[in-house]
Design brief:
This protein is 47% helix and 0% strand. By secondary structure, the chain is mainly α. The protein has a single domain (28-330), classed as Glycosyltransferase. α4 packs parallel to α6 (101-113), α4 packs parallel to α14 (295-307) and α10 (198-210) packs parallel to α12 (247-259). It is globular, with a radius of gyration of 19 Å. The chain starts with a helix and ends in a 26-residue tail after the last helix. The structure holds geranylgeranyl diphosphate and zinc ion (ZN). The site of geranylgeranyl diphosphate has 17 residues, from α8, α10 and α12.
């Protein structure tokens, strides 16, 4: 490899192609999402059964943010999500799959986006499932496999908040565990001693916000670590020396919004990167310009643009990643 080639390899950023889209192509994304969820025979659909309920939340939320929720087959989706519920009170990704906190939160979010009432008995059972995941040290496992991760703390606290059962969990211990994952650089990791990662910062800052404990951290220090995620291209990475990816537009920007520091990011450059991740032919957003679009990067790309106040989109809540409309215009910030 030439010296110039080596330099290019070491440079952790991308060039935005001159032909990239420069504004939001909202309608083509609604078509992309609608088609994705309707085509049950596609390779992508069949291969993603293990994350189906999360996928449903990404699609339904993208449509709600795009003011196109009525285009989704609400009854069919609600019935499907309900069949994913297990006798332990949690939800799996598909019928007959074990419960997992990631899918339990996504199931609750999906039902609430459609305006479904979760009755008191169901809420109690969900809360008891979530409680069963909390460990002695305050941390949470995601399922019976027993892995501990700050993602599962955020999902557990968010689920119990959304079903109005916040005191089911040991909040003090949950926060003590989160604070053991707070690093001196201002970021948070998956577990005590783990490297700071923007996804985990979102989970930990979100957990502190849900429990009203943001005063535990130095907001400016965390916001500075987040602001350093912005690359020359305008895109954001998840940690130092990594490539930018459009989903970090959400994880980083939402964290900054929760911290009241959105202005730490160069909005113009960032929007340029987000717009460039759109596929103007198939619709949808990819992680980076020119890659293959998928519902995960589509919802988080759209949600980030909503945080910047795009008027063609519904306003999003930075903690729960749902429209303020579906949360009843309530925010706990
Ligand atoms: C949306 C309310 C709500 C809750 C969700 C599960 C969760 C809570 C958040 C996940 C946050 C997270 C960890 C995001 C990162 C996702 C991602 C792109 C992981 C890839 O990690 P690496 O190490 O990628 O493969 P990098 O970018 O570091 O190379
Ligand atoms: Zn990504």
């Amino acid at each position: 490899m030439s010296f110039a080639g080596l330099l290019d390899f070491a440079r952790k950023d991308i060039d935005i192609p001159a032909s990239s889209p420069r504004n939001l192509l909202k309608d083509v994304h609604s078509q992309f999402i609608h088609q994705y969820q309707a085509d049950h025979n596609s390779y992508m659909y069949i291969m993603s059964e293990h994350l189906r309920v999360s996928g449903i939340y990404w699609c339904v939320n993208a449509m709600d943010l795009s003011k196109d929720l009525e285009k989704m087959p609400s009854q069919e989706i609600i019935e499907y999500v309900k069949t994913c519920r297990n006798s332990d009170g949690g939800y799996g990704p598909a019928p007959g799959h074990d419960s997992h906190i990631l899918h339990t939160l996504c199931a609750v979010q999906t039902l609430l986006i459609f305006g479904e009432t979760i009755d008191s008995e169901t809420s109690n059972e969900i809360a008891s499932y979530v409680k069963s995941l909390q460990q002695e040290d305050g941390s949470f496992v995601g399922d019976i496999a027993g892995e501990i991760d700050t993602r599962f703390t955020m999902c557990s606290l968010a689920t119990c908040h959304l079903i109005n059962r916040p005191n089911t969990l040991n909040i003090q211990k949950a926060i003590e565990f989160i604070m053991r994952c707070y690093n001196t650089d201002g970021g948070f990791g998956t577990r005590p001693g783990s490297e700071s990662h923007a996804g985990q910062v979102y989970c930990c800052v979100g957990s502190l916000a849900i429990t009203g404990r943001l005063e535990e951290i130095n907001r400016d220090r965390t916001a500075e670590w987040l602001a350093f995620r912005q690359c020359e291209s305008g895109g954001l990475n998840g940690r130092p020396e990594k490539l930018p990816d459009v989903c970090y537009s959400w994880w980083v920007l939402a964290s900054l919004a929760i911290l009241g520091r959105l202005d730490f990011i160069d909005e113009k450059k960032m929007k340029r990167f987000i717009f460039a991740c759109q596929d103007d032919e198939t619709g949808g957003f990819a992680d980076r310009p020119g890659d293959c679009a998928d519902p995960f990067h589509t919802v988080f790309g759209i949600a980030a643009l909503s945080l910047f106040g795009d008027e063609t989109l519904e306003p999003v809540d930075p903690i729960f990643c749902m429209t303020k409309r579906s949360l009843g215009k309530l925010s706990i910030l």
